[in-house]
Amino acid sequence: MSGLAVSLDDIRQAAARIRPYARVTPLLTIDEGGRSLGLKCENLQRSGAFKIRGAANMLLQLQPEERQRGVITFSSGNHGIAMSLAASLLGCPAVVVMPTTAPAVKVETARRLGAEIIFEGTTTIERKARADAEAAARGLTIMPPFDHAWIIAGQGTLGLEILEQAPDAAAVYVPSSGGGLLSGVAAAVKSLAPRVRLIGVEPACTPRMTRSLAAGHPVTVPGAAGVADGLLAVRPGDVTFALIQAHVDEIVTLDDEAIIGGVGWIFDRARLVAEPSGAASVAAALGWGTTTWSREGAVGARDIGGPAVAVISGGNVETAAFSTYITSARHP
Questions:
Q1: Given the residues 47, 75, 76, 281, the one annotated as active site
Q2: Residue that wins the pLDDT comparison between 249 and 296
């Protein structure tokens, strides 16, 4: 990993650092059509999503005076919730800039944890600009949702757990928005088990990673509405992109129908609640998506040739919406 921002040692140190704050989540195995699919259940993580890993890792490395002044982030929901939880555990004031379209369950959860909520626009770019302005005016430290080495290292601890729980895994499917989770998991897994295929999963409406990898550098795609509210970043991070470019083997995109089908499948087969963003990886592992970028020699989603693991990255979904998803879901 020479020249890259996050090393295996960084991830191992993060795992030790966040141990009191983040759970080791279960990996459940489901047999589907003669094939084993492992579900890494970050929907059962504290705060309901994987984001507590990165948020805790970064907050714990700030100087005491920085924590005393407070922190701010820009988030569609789950990172804001995680930062709010970590800040409340450490006695740190927290501010979250959320989109005007943020699901009420995510807004209220962050607010219940003590965060101040500011609404700004609908895109990551708009939220970041407001967070930058608030940080400058109020002396707050910015906690980026994905494009920071400390955040990525924290998310990478998930990759260590996957290899411990499923040492025979042949492929790992990871939802991707700005790329913090995908880059961290890829850095961990490829450092320890380079034979394992890493597949990123994104919505077809915002294919920022597909287009960036094809171009060879981060690009911005138009903003779009989609059912997977946590996967709608319009541009990958610079740090996350470099790691993904180095380590990820394939990107799969899915339309909203396939993502909702994943929510329904997870509930039907595992009796688990997953938000659409968290279910996208499962839908891709089941072969419902389209490979839109791959390295030379990449194989299709149905042809991995061994057990696969799909990361259910979160379960923060409104009850009414979830009911609609599981009653309307059609498996492609």
A1: 76
A2: 249
Q: How confident is the model at residue 188 (pLDDT cuts 50, 70, 90)?
A: very high
Kindly write down the DSSP assignment for every residue of 226-287, as one continuous string: -S-GGG--SS--HHHHHHHHHH--EEEEE-HHHHHHHHHHHHHHH-----HHHHHHHHHHTT
Q: 76 catalytic, yes or no?
A: yes
Report whether 178 contacts 287 (CB < 8 A). Answer: no
User: Which tokens is 313 given?
Assistant: 């990255």
pTM of the model: 0.93
Say if residues 258 and 208 touch (Cβ distance below 8 Å): no
CATH topology of domain 52-142: Rossmann fold (3.40.50)
Question: How far apart (Å, rounded) are the C-alpha atoms in residues 134 and 108?
Answer: 21
- Band (pLDDT 50/70/90 cuts) for residue 301 is very low
Query: What is the chain's mean pLDDT, rounded?
Result: 93
C-alpha 320/C-alpha 47 separation (Å) is: 20
57-58-62 Cα angle (round to 5): 125
Q: How far apart are CA 141 and CA 123, in angstroms?
A: 21
Are the beta carbons of 260 and 329 closer than 8 angstroms? yes
SS3 184: helix
Contacts of 158 (CB under 8 A, 6+ apart): 40, 42, 50, 53, 181, 184, 185, 188, 311
User: Could you say which of 3.40.50.620, 3.40.50.300, 3.40.50.1100, 3.40.30.10 is the CATH number of the domain covering 8-49+148-328?
Assistant: 3.40.50.1100
Which is the catalytic residue, given 40, 47, 51, 191?
Answer: 51
pLDDT at 1: 37
**286-to-42, 87, 147, 192, 308 alpha-carbon distances in Å:** 19, 37, 29, 25, 10
Neighbour order of strands in the sheet with 197-203: 27-32, 35-41, 308-312, 171-175, 197-203, 250-254, 290-294
pLDDT higher than 50, residue 131 = yes
